[in-house]
Amino acid sequence: MIVALDVETAAEAREVIRELGAEPAAYKIGLQLFTSAGPEFVREVASEYKVFLDLKFHDIPNTVAKSAVEATRLGVWMFNVHASGGGEMMRRTIGEVDSACQKENRKRPLVIGVTVLTSSDAKTLRETGIEREAEDQVLHLSRLASECGLDGVVASPLEVSLIRRGVERSDFVIVTPGVRPDFATNDDQKRVMNPRSAVSEGSDFLVLGRPILQATDRTLALRRICEEIDAAD
Predict the structure, then answer these.
(1) What is the pTM of this model?
(2) CA distances from residue 204 to 41, 62, 153, 175 in whole angstroms, order as listed
(3) Residue 184: pLDDT band by 50, 70, 90 thresholds?
(4) The domain that contains 215 carries what CATH number?
(5) How many structural domains is the chain composed of?
(6) Is the pLDDT of residue 187 over 80?
(7) Torsion 49-172-1-134 (CA) sign
């Protein structure tokens, strides 16, 4: 379970972390909090907990690769790039991160590719000139990410089983947003699934934000979700 720190300030994020502690596998720091609190806050959290830095890098290969190295130096456990940035961008990123880690004696973070955002559907893709259905685009980008040496992908739970069948790597990590427990609403997510089903389909890590952040008792909400998953095993 990865808890998304989708809040406005570092103070709010610290309160969530104070309440949950080491209960989740990791904490996700995305664009909103990173823009508000900056890289020093990432270092602060990463010094005690696993951090998934969710900035979805997407630029020319050199810029993404250099940014990825700086993300690595923050001490994060995992970060992502947009797989739609292409093969050269992903290969260059992996190469430079590997090189920096070897030179600086660092443990390399997981580098994963964003496939199709869970807020997107076929209509959204067509607006950007992509004629494939969402699931076909997800599989295409997952295979490309694997070929380029990425450790895994971010994908909707609806495509997890498709990726498991279509990418022939047992170590390929799938991180799943768009997960909503039965007691929560879907909000702005379009391609969603409950946590129990997502794990059953083959997801390695579930990203949850509002169902936990907005709960009166966040620890209880997190434990309820974990119990729901465990009951299905």
Answers:
(1) 0.92
(2) 26, 30, 10, 6
(3) low
(4) 3.20.20.70
(5) 1
(6) no
(7) positive
Residue 156 contacts residue 138 (beta carbons within 8 Å): yes
Contact at 8 Å (CB) between 199 and 228? no
pLDDT for 71 = 98
| Residue linked to tokens 């972390």 | 17
Range of the domain at 113: 2-232
Burial class for 220, CB neighbours closer than 10 Å (0-12, 13-18, 19+): exposed
b or e along 15-31 (b: 16 or more beta carbons within 10 Å of the residue's beta carbon)? ebbeebeeebebbbbbe
56 assigned to active site: yes
Contacts for 83 with CB less than 8 Å, ≥ 6 apart:
90, 113, 114, 115, 141, 142, 144, 145, 150, 153
Give residue-wise pLDDT tens across range 15-48. 999 999 999 999 999 999 999 999 999 999 999 9
- Catalytic pick among 56, 103, 107, 190: 56
Nearby residues of 65 by Cβ (< 8 Å), 6 or more positions away = 89, 92, 93, 95, 96, 97
Average pLDDT over residues 76-81: 98
Strand partners, 179: 193
pLDDT in tens, 89-102: 999 999 999 999 99
Strands 78-82 and 51-57: parallel
For 131, list phi and psi in degrees, rounded to 5. -90, -10
Report how far apart, in Å, the C-alpha atoms of 11 and of each of 76, 151, 214, 225 are.
Answer: 20, 32, 16, 25
- For residue 233, pLDDT beyond 60: no
Over residues 202-213, the pLDDT tens digits come to: 999 999 999 999
